Amino acid sequence: MYRRLWFDLHATVLHAEHALTRADRPALILRDGPSPLLAGNGTPMLHASPPVPAAHIDSSTDNTNNTATDDAVDTGTTAVCATALARTVRLPLPSRSALTVEPIRDILRRGAHTGHAWFTVDIDAAGLRATTTRTVRDSAPPASATWRDALISHHRQGQYKGQTCPGYQVHGGAPARFRTEVMHQLLADTLCSHTPNRVVTTVFEGRKPWLVDDLGDRTPVTADADGWWPITHPGLRWTASLSAETDGPDPEPVFEPYGTDGAGLRCGVCGAIDEATYRELPSMAGFGDDTATTCTICGSAETTDPVFGLRADPKPWPPQPGAPSHGTGSRRPEPSA
Ligand SMILES: [Zn+2]
Q1: Which residues surround ligand 1, an ion (CB under 5 A)?
Q2: Could you count the other beta carbons within 10 Å of the beta carbon of residue 123?
Q3: I need a labelling partner for 161 at 20 to 30 A (CA). Which of 73, 123, 134, 178 fits?
């Protein structure tokens, strides 16, 4: 029996990088208990970023090695696991340990560079068992999760304005939720008789909508307390593309400054840090420069020119199966400590 604690990777990296520059023996400090917290040991403490709370806590039973022993787990251990022993656990950043083949520092940096969203820590009564980074969590986002405006699409169903929740995955696709009008449009589209190979169709029963697949299985469509309609169905693997407001005066930039000094660059679409290429050319406008910043992981780009200013070109994330990959080619070496 062990617990898997899920921490936001980018918040964790902030604490780790701070500790690496501000501590003699840099480490992440895990305060375990019913509400686990993770923070770096840099001094002075990172005031701008509070300790990272575990967003999720999973309890797991090992079935890999020996189920007989697992069945025989003594109630003492189970009780300890269930109530989560209050204790402090040190995760050294620059050194290898019995747990990890490479330093946790490198695991965190690579995870962040490749667009992972989570740092997970497996822990049991005896102590740490494993640490790693993960792209997404297979579950519906909790009420506390942060949703972002996105274009939600499915190659057969169409494309809709809605929101997605980076870091989560539902039925193998991006989580998606919609405003009431868009939800009605989406349901109407499922009834379109000329749509080829419809994935689902909609029936109304007692004035409530249900999605019905070709096997006849029904999934209710209901609104959350906040008025958004999450639409999830095994047949609808949504792809989310964080939307660029092209019609507004202030397009949402793809990239944002990153790190305590703001010298880094984080891709707002996939979360990769310092994985962007930058190009600058004399502008076709005849004066000034055109610039292009492109994320090497997801391909999202941001361009500026002297006439139109900033233009954002976010790409779908996570990538569609079969879509060309942007991140598997040559990657710049990671910065050294
Ligand atoms: Zn990216």
Answers
A1: 267, 269-270, 272, 295, 297-298, 300
A2: 24
A3: 134
Q: pLDDT of the chain along its 337 residues, tens only?
A: 899 999 999 889 989 988 998 899 999 999 999 999 999 998 887 776 789 999 999 998 765 543 333 333 333 334 444 556 789 999 999 988 777 788 999 999 888 888 789 999 999 988 899 999 999 999 989 888 889 899 999 887 888 999 999 899 999 999 999 999 999 999 988 887 666 667 888 888 888 899 998 888 889 999 998 899 999 888 889 999 876 544 445 567 889 888 888 888 888 888 888 889 999 888 877 888 889 999 888 889 999 888 878 888 888 776 655 555 554 443 444 444 4
Distance 270 CA to ligand 1 centre (A): 4
CA of 243 to the centre of ligand 1 (A): 13
For 211, the token pair is: 């999605």
**What is the Å distance from ligand 1's center to 221 Cα?**
32
Neighbours of 224 (CB within 10 A): 10
Report pTM.
0.67
Within 10 angstroms of residue 16's Cβ, the number of other Cβ atoms is 27
Residue 275 Cα, ligand 1 centroid: separation in angstroms?
Answer: 8
Pick left, alpha or beta for residue 309 (phi over 0 → left; psi -120 to 50 → alpha; otherwise beta): left
Distance 223 CA to ligand 1 centre (A): 31
